[in-house]
Amino acid sequence: MLFIIRQISKLPFGILYAISDVVYFFLYRLIGYRKKIVRSNLSSSFPEKTEKELRDIERKFYHWLCDYFVETLKLLSITPENMKRHLEFRNVEIITQAYDKGQGVAAFLGHYCNWEWLSAIGLYYPEEYEHAFNGLVYHPLRNDFMDNLMKEARSSMRGTPVPKKNILRELVRLKRDKTPYLFGYIFDQSPKWDNIHLWTDFLNHNSPVFTGAERLAMKMDDRVVFLSMERPKRGKYIATFQLIAEHAAETQEYEITKKALSLLEDSIRNAPHLYLWTHNRWKRTYEEYLQRQERR
Question: How far apart are CA 199 and CA 23, in angstroms?
């Protein structure tokens, strides 16, 4: 199976996108994969939009989702030169300036555009920082085959997947060895009940938000950036670093998380079909949270 997937990944982008169009027909038109969750998320996030506008976002979303699948497979075989033709990074100097000062970087990003391609940041460093450590925080998958496949894809562009339970140990080691590093944190997932510390407004919902990335950044006094993405056309992405804090240790509690969440929402409202709407993001409500706290 892995051999077959690798061979598929070697196909030109044009053929991969043709495959994506076929998958879209089955996934959206015939199967209706998680369509109920997608519609609920869209209608509650954008109550001001008409039914026609919501359906248009929905169709575009499923088209993008299928493209995301084949683009992620492409990581198994794409060359650095080819990647640079499809992905552009802007404001990389914000990262290298932190490295010049012996400082690490915490990059906040959401499930927006193709976040898997952001593992290629190491290709865009100047020569003196080619050895920098680019950590990709992830939660290991239960299926060993899929877990190994995703690790191979994510490490193909000089990124290093790090299980979330090992993050602090890895950060301390890098700091001790004076190795420049960037860790990417996808922070827009729903935390478990016992790990909720912050509720804040996000896409018209009172939402629980992960704050572990902020606490790690403050502990290490990292420079904090938000990594936004846009997709001007099929097969082309632009990733831009935006400074949130020069020194995380000098910020107020939750200041970083709230700022990053605000920037993510700006991106989503600008092009809502590029967000991962299949995730049941608001299954935990503030009312139920209060009830659980009361029972405790």
Answer: 37
Check residue 239 and report its DSSP letter. E
Flag whether pLDDT at 151 surpasses 90. Answer: no
How buried is 246 (Cβ within 10 angstroms: 0-12 exposed, 13-18 middle, 19+ buried)?
Answer: middle
- Could you read off the pLDDT of 92-141 as tens digits, one per residue? 999 999 999 999 999 999 999 999 999 999 999 999 999 999 999 888 88
Cα gap 159→209, rounded to integer Å: 25
Structure tokens at 273: 């079909």
Contact 147, 140 (CB under 8 A): yes
- CA proximity to 154, closest of 125, 114, 124: 114
Q: Please state whether the predicted TM-score (pTM) of the whole model is above 0.90.
A: yes
Identify the CA nearest to 275 among candidates 231, 232, 236, 241.
231
